[in-house]
Amino acid sequence: MHDIRALRADPAAFDSALTRRGLAPTAADALRLDDLRVEATRIVQAAQTTRNELSRQIGAAMKAGDTATAERLKAEVKAAMDAAAAATPEAHEAARDELLAALPNRLDADVPDGDDDSGNVVQHVQGEPKAFDFTPKQHFEIGEALGLMDFPTAGKLAGARFTVLRGALARLERALGQWMVTLHTDAHGYTEATVPYLVNDATMYGTGQLPKFGEDLFRTTDGRWLIPTAEVPLTNFVRGEILDPAALPTRLTALTPCFRSEAGAAGRDTRGMLRQHQFAKVELVSITAPDQSDAEHERMTRCAERVLTELGLTWRRVLLCAGDTGFGAVKTYDLEVWLPGQQAWREISSCSNCRDFQARRMEARFRPTGGKGTEFVHTLNGSGVAVGRALIAVLETHQNADGSVTIPDVLRPWMGGLERIGG
Questions:
Q1: Which positions ≥6 away from 374 have C-beta within 8 Å?
Q2: 8-state DSSP, 415
Q3: Which candidate, 403, 398, 396, 408, places its Cα nearest to that of 423?
């Protein structure tokens, strides 16, 4: 959510920020609605003042037996209160907030311009794509050949964009998630949480999924929503709270299933596990003071990068351009892994700084030490990382000519000491 005071102070800068995202100028519309709210509020306050002043005069007139004057004054009070009832400042405020709630966050100055992912900037590459003395297979070819990745059964059970894993591959997926959560809690200082997978409207609104992205979500018949990421419940832990500065930064992590309708992904990545309606992900969320969030963004990204390095994957960090940065973020780093079977880089993690954008929606504040009043916290989120895509990357990177897959060293304790699947 945007600060209407900042918008009013510099509407041209606000519109310029929207233009960077390919959107039409909107400041004038927002200010018009806010002007209507201000005028309506003035009318209501004036009516209340009139009622208070005239009530005393009515009392005096009645005491003096001047019925005509009393009735005239009562009519004036009624007219003022009728005007107040018609003013509806709450309606103008709701219309203004509805407009602002649909607008994305303002980007940082160092976010590059660009309309789509072609404008993204590679900042770092870790490792070299692995050389094979055979033609590497894609993950679904490996999994199906092992007899452990089953798309027909998943289709029978649920339809397209679902997967059934069996045996060692099911255990490998579980091992990945458990190892990542343990790494982030033990080595990186995140606190693990278990969270509801169903949340209410206010929770989805707080992190920006509603109202704009309802079609990308699954909704239950009782009005709840399946979470698209654990970012949603974790960030909302602080909704409506005033935090002690000693509690900042707060770092949270959770391993959860995620549910997405993929409404805009028709025809994309239809083979395999890359784009699913249900998948597991380890999420990282940080709640910080404003002066901490830039450093926290770098730290969070390094935590996710460590996962990829320890799995022996080739990866790169990409700074997203204006046209590819998500709705709530001021700046996002994507981490992409090299998939030998696809011969392509694919996103496996996004780490974003949202500054106070989500906090304003959630009314999440802290009380600065030695300061007066409260300030909005800053929120950050990142994948640490997507479990299904990590499984894909491990299968394709560590495949062998005989169809087997070598298990990365860090996962072997979680696999009962197993060193290889198949072969």
A1: 242, 365, 366, 367, 368
A2: G
A3: 403
Q: Where are the domains of the chain?
A: 4-101, 117-421
Whether the Cβ atoms of residue 292 and residue 248 lie closer than 8 Å to each other: yes
Q: Which CATH class is domain 4-101?
A: mainly alpha
Q: What is the mean pLDDT of the chain?
A: 95
Task: Name the pairing type of β-strands 405-406 and 420-421.
Answer: antiparallel
Q: Residue 369's pLDDT is what?
A: 87
**Cα separation of 119 and 107, whole Å?**
15
Query: Can you tell me the distance from the alpha carbon of 116 to that of 293, in angstroms, rounded to the nearest whole number?
Result: 26
DSSP string, 226-266: E-SSTHHHHHGGGTT-EE-GGG-SEEEEEEEEEE---TT-T
What's this model's pTM, rounded to 2 decimal places? 0.91
Q: Helix 139-146 vs helix 387-397: angle between axes, to the nearest 10 degrees?
A: 80
Tell me how many degrees the CA angle 280-259-282 measures, rounded to the nearest 5. Answer: 30
**269 pLDDT above the threshold of 90:** no
**CATH hierarchy code of domain 117-421:** 3.30.930.10
Classify residue 393 as left (phi > 0), alpha (psi -120 to 50) or beta.
alpha
**Beta-sheet pairing, 250-259 with 191-192:** parallel
Q: How confident is the model at residue 229 (pLDDT cuts 50, 70, 90)?
A: very high
Residue type for 239, please? Answer: R
Nearest to 252 by CA among 302, 195, 175: 195
